[in-house]
Amino acid sequence: MKKRILVTGGAGFIGSNLCEQLAKDENNEVYSLDNYFTGSKNNHVANVTYIEGLTVDIDKLITFEPHTVYHLGEYSRVEQSFDDIEKVWRFNKDGIFAVLEFVRKTGAKIVYAGSSTKFGDGGLGRSASPYAWTKATNTELVENYGVWFNVPYAITYFYNVYGNREIQTGKYATLIALFKEKMKNNETLTIVAPGSQQRNFTHIDDIVSGLILVGENGYGNDFGIGSPESYSIKEIAQMFGGKIEVLPERKGNRMTADVMTAKTEALGWKPTKNIQNYIEELRKNNWTR
Ligand SMILES: NC(=O)c1ccc[n+]([C@@H]2O[C@H](COP(=O)([O-])OP(=O)(O)OC[C@H]3O[C@@H](n4cnc5c(N)ncnc54)[C@H](O)[C@@H]3O)[C@@H](O)[C@H]2O)c1
What we know:
alpha/beta, Rossmann fold
């Protein structure tokens, strides 16, 4: 029998790449549940069944019992989350309760997409924005469902993901794709002060390989999936090589975050990509892909 796998947020950046890789294995039957808030039908890939709706309605929308639920479908931006608190609550807090109840009742394993913002600035980062707080408290609730109800779970933590299908324009664009677009259009690169904030930019392929290993063999908390190399935002802008403008400091921005990948590495995971090489590749292609 095939393994039924549900990916929430399967039409988003990370979710679509995960769906694509999972669907290459003919022993898997892959489903996505997405409300298309930041997700897009342009991200649909072959051999995946797409279901449209909110995670809060998961028990009505998913009529089968999956083996594994990768829960990625949440509101997912730090600074913007101050403006979007109602969506953050609905998507992340109402959503996690519904998803956890669903896995409790169906017996599925949950693999949760946690955020490294939780480890920001020695742990202060966990409450630095509505986004960070919902992600940090959701990891605690997932852990508690493991203890209270024996729900099988694994919690992963991603670090600034970049690569194919990253959102490149508009309010929800992320840094690497945004800088690429600006270089293509000969525009100034804007960085938020102080510019010395460090990030461990991690390639989407490394995230997906980590997620699949953790989905298959990981149980418990602390599966960090992050590149060991950290660079400041200013250094990244300098690697692109465009004109730089520094914008005033913003709420929610962290300076550093600890990277802990030992448990993921123990499953056989190794990061394979480096942001500097990626930016060089983009340059060779005149910032077009
Ligand atoms: N990109 C990163 O650097 C990063 C870092 C740490 C953690 N994460 C986490 O990884 C996950 C995926 O992030 P991403 O970068 O692919 O973001 P994304 O915005 O591209 O993807 C999120 C997807 O989930 C969908 N979605 C949001 N709320 C939903 C809901 N309540 N019900 C159904 N669908 C919903 C969106 O439409 C979108 O398709 C998120 O949980 C995010 O918090 C991402």
